[in-house]
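Purpose: get a first structural picture of the assembly so the mutagenesis plan has something to point at.
Setup: two entries, given in the order below. No constraints added.
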Amino acid sequence: MPNPDTSAQPSRNMMGASYAWLRRASPVQRIPHYWRQPLGLIATTAAALLFPIISGNDANIDSAANALAFAALALGLNIVVGFAGLLDLGYAAFFAIGAYTYGALASFQLEPAWSGFWEPFQWLDLVARVHEPSGDTVHFQVSFWLALPISAVTAALFGVLFGAPTLRLKGDYLAIVTLGFGEIVPIVARNWQGLTNGAMGLNGVAAPQLFGWSFGVRAWPYYYVGVALVALLILVSTRLKVSRIGRAWMAIREDEIAASAMGINLVRLKLLAFATGAAFAGATGTYFVAKLQTATPEMFMFPVSVMILVMIVFGGIGSVWGVVAGALILQILQSWFLEDLSQWLHALGRLVNVEWLQQVELSSWIEMIFGVILVAMMLYRRQGLIPATRAVQALSLAEQTAQLGVNTGTGGIERLHNLGDFTYRGDAPLLEVKGLTVRFGGLVALREIDLTVPARSIVAVIGPNGSGKSTLFNAVTGLVRQQSGIIRFAGEDIERAPPHAVLAHGMARTFQNIRLFPNLTVLENVLVGMHARLHTGAVGALLHLPRTQREEAAARERALEILAVFGNRLIPRVDHTVASLSYANRRRVEIARALASEPKLLLLDEPTAGMNPAETLELAGQIKSLHELGLSIVLIEHKLDVVVSLADNVVVLDHGEMIAEGPPDVVRRDEEVIRAYLGRSASLGGVAVA
Amino acid sequence: MTTEALYLQQLINGLSLGAMYALLALGFTLVYGILELINFAHFNVFMVSSFVAMWALELLGLQGQNTVLTGFALVGALVFAFVVTMTVAGCLGVAIERLALRPMRAVRGTAAMITTIGVSYILFNTILLTAGADSKNVPNPMPDIRWAIGDATLRLREVLIWAISLALMVGLHLFVTRTRLGKAMRATAQDAEAARMMGIDVDRVIITAFFLGSALAGAAALIFGLYYNYTSFIIGYSAGLRAFTAAVLGGIGSVAGAMLGGVLIGLIEAFGGQIVSVRWTDVIIFSILVLVLVFVPTGLLGRSAPSKS
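Result (structure tokens, whole complex):
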């Protein structure tokens, strides 16, 4: 298969012969590519584990432990902003919730009076009974290790609570609402003295213990806990990213409407992203407060949320290793480098006798530096230090023209297995529309449309621009809700069903203007189409069970089969982002994505638009073959030769009304159709191919 | 003080705050109406402008609360301060659009919004690092003329603030509805692509929106200084969020809505502080923001639901 491994072999054209020595000289290039990732991982792990031994300086280890906390936060925000594309400006609120959860569970802050209610907790060693002259009180002493998951869950619940009312809103409104929540939480923390001790800070938070040995105020045990936490969160992030869940998040980020039309439940998945991100912050909050052994509301204000945002923008939005690198680099810059640099400047100032150089304190410049980084990265390197998607080089001419074993041109796809079952076997008509009316304000876009699509048929919808064809698709698939009438699919009423439920019933569609997920690869786009047919949830993706792996492998195999429907058009480009494809290939990907959902009925909105006559012919042949496999199709099309060659039945719309219906041969002779669609004097034959 | 007088006093305070928030909200609404962008830089354009206003007044030789002007001198000083502050603020807004936001216009998603946060941060820290973290005393040249209404007091500065805000808002309304550029602006807000095809210079419209919005933020900043007699690097955040809430409450994208929302938020702040507690004011205002967004996303005077398709 002509699928070049670009990481191993840089293009000869790019490097040029004279630079060949450079390639040989580079030690990294001499390592076989399949070794690079494991070796990199081993080197990173070794460096992380050996750092305290090499460094030996307690202050440095402490800064590194803090940096790890921010790496964990960056990983969490990356789920929300990077994967799901939801801008959360109050992320520090969840950090605060995690911190105060541990504060409440393991400090002297809350001391309710003792009663029998607490006895079971005492047996579990979660609370202790403290004898005091004024009466016995409860002392909470929940273990740090137990508090980590508890605060993760607590923060996740708050994530759902904050997210639920706002996730129906457009993205930028979410930003402002989260900004508000990010403001409210520290205010509540400041004013709720009983729980938080306000601005004075939490009292006597317990240090973690391991087998009875307390961490105390040493830096290195916290450092190793931080390493473990970040490693765990990296694992969670990478596993989610390549799973059904991660793909759904990225699809939402790229195009919400298309994601919803491809079977993704927007509200549920956005809440999942919000809750996952919040859980990361919650666990990190517990880690951080256990390390500091106090917490004040100022630790969780807006600047902290911005700092985490800067970290992920700097490292690369959506890139797991990128955001870790971004967080560590910026933290190191802040805690080590700026101090040192200030010292050097002071020395320089003394040397050249310049007063202000001796005074300058660069650490107060950190927020300014963050602001500059944010703007500069956005303007000049939006993908960050380590981009989430690596560019795949364009195909060579030989690769583009390579012939595959499977068909090119028309027919032949019946040789493909495993495409899915497209055949509807029920008794009720596949799609039945009765009296469908759609109004936008005063405009009637569709009036009293009746339409029946029998099983295993191809129905074409034609009509002039603005006659309501696409609105018909939008109404049937649940994207337009301003409607009255009955829509039945396979005997079930679906007129109130949201788009993702319509797809799950077995009706998939393409869009007139092409709505792909531009920054996902061809393969990922097709895999998103399978969302409703796959079952892996967040937990399954995390545990990476054999069942999950089998499902994923089968899905990828089937995706390749589906792409093979289009011969060698897409197969060599499976790893390319769709943004780099030609217009015609994007149309093909969109059809492949719809097929991936294993529909019984496929709605194609101008599938051959932008294709030349040869490509049009090729696609018409492929549509016909799919139909022969049992798929029913509704087709919006302007090219009448395509309509005539494919359709069993033609429906003509004009100004939102159905003006004719019948077999193609009858409809093309209908006077009213000719007048409405082609203009008075046009003859059908002459215009058809135009 | 009787309860009635207390409420009357809060009404006066709330209207003054509201006038300021309305001016600030207009900047959000103008830019949002055209670019569908929440401009976080606006928060700190306001804050920077309050320093510009202070420097403009000090340029006239006014210091602290000692110099009191009357008659033409007062009018002249105020006109000078407003013109300077609004011009500088407007140019700042245009510079932000030109340097940081125009390159982001074609980029989908949250990138442009993130950029405005960065710009806001830069403005914030520029003032913090140059002018310092302490609050500054803003000169107040207005004579201390008071009218007693029962137990409540109405001061000259409040009347002046109301009059100036009203004049600016009427001016903006006339500009948007009567002038060619204003009509181009409304057309671009409806459909930028169609406007461009009809020969409207969309870049010029966007620049105008940024200039006007920021200039109004400048006016709001001067009013802030005259009202509270202080400024500080941190004032942008809470005033900005209140003004944004005002814009959403009135219906973002709607000029009249921003004015109405601003006045309402001002009143809510004044009465909320009176009835509940000042320390919960922020929470009350953000709760309103969330409730409005969830239940009436169009706001009071907005046209359509905020959903991009």
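The interface with chain A takes residues 36-38, 100, 103-104, 107, 109-111, 113-115, 117-122, 124-126, 128-129, 237, 241, 244, 248, 279-280, 282-283, 286, 289-290, 293-294, 297, 306-309 of chain B (CB under 8 Å).
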